[in-house]
Amino acid sequence: MTKTADAADLQKISGLIKDIKVAMLTSEDGGHLRSRPMVAAQKDFAGELYFFTRASAAKVGEVQSHGSVNVSYADAERQNYVSLSGTASIEHDRRVVEAHWSEAMRTWFPNGKSDPDIAILKVSVEQAEYWDAPSSTMVYLYGYVKAVTTGRPPQPGENEKLRIA
Amino acid sequence: MTKTADAADLQKISGLIKDIKVAMLTSEDGGHLRSRPMVAAQKDFAGELYFFTRASAAKVGEVQSHGSVNVSYADAERQNYVSLSGTASIEHDRRVVEAHWSEAMRTWFPNGKSDPDIAILKVSVEQAEYWDAPSSTMVYLYGYVKAVTTGRPPQPGENEKLRIA
């Protein structure tokens, strides 16, 4: 079931998540699992995810005490779903902030990249799973028809579980 | 910041999630947080969420050993995001399965509601958070303009944190 990710796998995940601007980051907070929308700050995926955050935000404290997080991407239109499990850390290094900055980030950080309260929440991904359907409507319909005619559940796309070395 | 949810709050959350057919359920698995798409099986939200699952699925074991889960709903088009934190349990009671069954579920469970491997994964929600933008594009643009003209971050919708009694 689980295999170690190779370059093609990383490219596949990169392709699935690149058009999903907002991911849900789940972390542990006093026994509860909480999630919140995060705006992705990187174009390509090579095992690490980068999000901008306020250094003073509550989630920064949460990930510092419980580093295990999940980042999920849901694209309802294409019926693509990705789960990335990993360890979060906070980067205060201004060079890291500047390397990921884009002007679109001014929506959330109007003072620009020199704002001292901006930090990077970095997730080092250890496990990845994805569900993708090349054409969701077709697969859904095909799956439904196939399910009722054969009595077997449909295979709506692929489900690969990857371990990222 | 946190208030106890009243009927209007539950209705608000119900409205935000009712058109999002697939939620991401995050649970803990051997130190990792994993998420997977789940098809919602209820129409209205009154503090509990119901999903169909195979009784033999790996996630059933995960939620039985670590009941704390998060259910996140992302509607990228409307820029609505909901985080529901709670405790999961598995209902094998056939009356519960039948009460939530709809024929659309045959896509995933072709043998119908009498399949003995069908169970209900129920989440009793304890905390809710949501981010909603009545008109995402307008708010995004307004927020961006406001951010660059006033130097203050935009308020893209509301962010309410609720405790469900």
Identify the notable features of this structure and list them briefly.
8-stranded mixed sheet; alpha+beta; homodimer; 165 residues
Query: Which two chains form the greatest contact, residue counts included?
Result: A-B, 46 and 46 residues
Q: How many β-strand stretches of chain A?
A: 8
Radius of gyration of chain A: 18 Å
Strand content of chain A: 35-45%
The oligomeric state is homodimer
The largest β sheet of chain A comes out as: 8 strands, mixed
Helix and strand content put the structural class of chain A at alpha+beta
The tally of helices of chain A reads 4
Can you walk me through this structure?
- The first copy, chain A, has 165 residues and is of the alpha+beta class.
- Chain A has helices spanning 7-17, 58-65, 94-100, 136-150; strands at residues 2-4, 22-29, 32-39, 48-54, 68-75, 80-91, 118-132, 158-163.
- In chain A, strands 1, 2, 3, 4, 5, 6, 7 and 8 form an eight-stranded mixed beta sheet that branches.
- In chain A, strand 2 (22-29) and strand 3 form a beta hairpin.
- Mean pLDDT of chain A is 77; it is low at 134-147.
- At the A-B interface, strand 2, strand 3, strand 5, strand 6 and strand 7 of A face strand 2, strand 3, strand 5, strand 6 and strand 7 of B.
What's a concise summary of this model?
The structure is a homodimer of 165-residue chains. Helix content of chain A is 25%, strand content 41%.
Layout of helices and strands, plus pairs?
The structure is a homodimer of 165-residue chains.
Chain A: E1 2-4, H1 7-17, E2 22-29, E3 32-39, E4 48-54, H2 58-65, E5 68-75, E6 80-91, H3 94-100, E7 118-132, H4 136-150, E8 158-163
Parallel strand pairs in A: 1-8
Antiparallel strand pairs in A: 2-3, 2-5, 4-7, 5-6, 6-7, 7-8
